[in-house]
Amino acid sequence: MNNDSPRQERILKIFTPVRCINRDQLLRYHRGNMTAVEKHLVEQHIVDCDLCHDALQAMGNHHLHEQYSHLTHELSQFIHREFAPPPQPDKKQQQRQIRQHKTAESLLSYFWAIMFVAIGGGSVFLLQQHLKNRPALAALPARTSEALVIPAPAAPPAAAVDPNYPATQTNDGKPLVIHTQYNSSARDSINKNDSTTISAANIKPIKPAPKDSASLKKKAVKDSTPKTSAADTNARLALNTPATLKEDPKKTEPKDPKDQKYTAEESNNTPNQAETDKNINPANTSNNTGKSKEKEEKAPASGDESLFRAAMQYQQQGDMNEAINQFKKLSGNEKYSERAKYQLAMIYKNKGQNGKARRLFKEIIKMEGNMKSMAQAQLNNMN
Amino acid sequence: MHLQLNNLNDKELLLRMRKLQDREATGVLLGRYSHLLVAVCLPKLSQEKPAETVFPTLIRQMSTQLSSSFGKLNETVYAIVQSYFATGNKTTAPYITPPTQIIQRLETQVEVAGNNPIARATLTARIEQALSQLNKEEAALLTGFYLEHQTLQELAQHHRTTADKVRNSLKGIRKKIATQLKDVAYE
Known about the structure:
The complex is a heterodimer. Chain A is mainly alpha-helical.
């Protein structure tokens, strides 16, 4: 294949398109001011284009050249006028439009900024209102046992006594013993040893470990219901020493109002403590009226006693499960059986396990002990 | 903008006319053919059809018809002028004969081939084959004009005829070759 052969290139010229002749070529063709190549290109185009052929033929008449020049100029001006681009708006008008657009945009941005601030402020206000008016019971657990998440004390139960507790001691160097509601009979068995007694007014209640607010609220609700005197022996026991004190009813009597005041103050903070204090007062009053002049006998602190104290401590701290375990251990003991069962029944009652509580109260009644009347009262109250 | 439009070819200007409704492009396109329009119409002007009415009317007709026309632009302009002076002020759509379209297609193929040697060789071979089927007079005329670069006047003198007749003969030969190539392509 010989691509560079002139024949091959020239054959393609037969169908190579050539542009129409311009106004300059139109006149030069007849004047003979063209090169051979240019003339051949014009003729090559003329073969195919009727318009250019007729135009060249018309320009063959030299008289028309002037008219041609004149009309061509006028026609080009007419076309220029007729097909001129649309007039552009004034600069001032453009600037005005831009300004209007900008002001509209700025107003829109201000509006959205104000809306954003308003929505944000409103949402914060609504959130605050919601948090303030949140229903209290919605956050409380259904049962007290569910709220008991406090771990068991690491220290042994005997060491769980509040260090702030003013362990008033007698002249003998022995710690004082708190009066209990069943001083009349049980105290005799417990406090066989001679010891001086202290009034409940001198005892600062042991602060319970911090609990869940939910459990506290629930307890407060439960405490609001009228109760008969509960047998809470925690406040009545000596803290961690075997020494017991002889109770002097004369001394305790005037201190009772103080104790009441104290309980009134503390009841807001610790409902459980308020319960214990409530329980102490009637016991003390009964104690004062019944056996005010009896001297308490000193009782040695045994392992069961410390176990009982520890159980009471657990109960005060809200560790009900541990307290139940301790009381169950003591329920087999002859000495503490009645009291342990009573406390166990009270715990069950507070937890809402009324069946167990009733059964224990009935057992206490059957035992015909000192706490029969209280158990009977609790049972009646439950029914 | 006007200068930039002057650099565009006819196809691009037509595209702008049709798609963008660009009046400026229309003006540039009509300006390219205005001198030919004047030259063609000049002998036909009369008192009934003076230049003041003929040219604005033709320009408006062209601006409306060019956007919907097909084929070569110069043929469309020529057809509009012919129809205007033949029928008066009536605007009729120009009729382009089928052989013109065949030639236009062949010209497009040559343009597309461009510098591609394979395409050019293929086209050349086809045209050579078509040339071989021409008679001696036609072949001599075609060879003298396109291959030997003789002018129309020289060919007319050689064949003892006029330049117009030579031109018409060459035009007819081109159509004949284009038709043959078309038939070959369909076979």
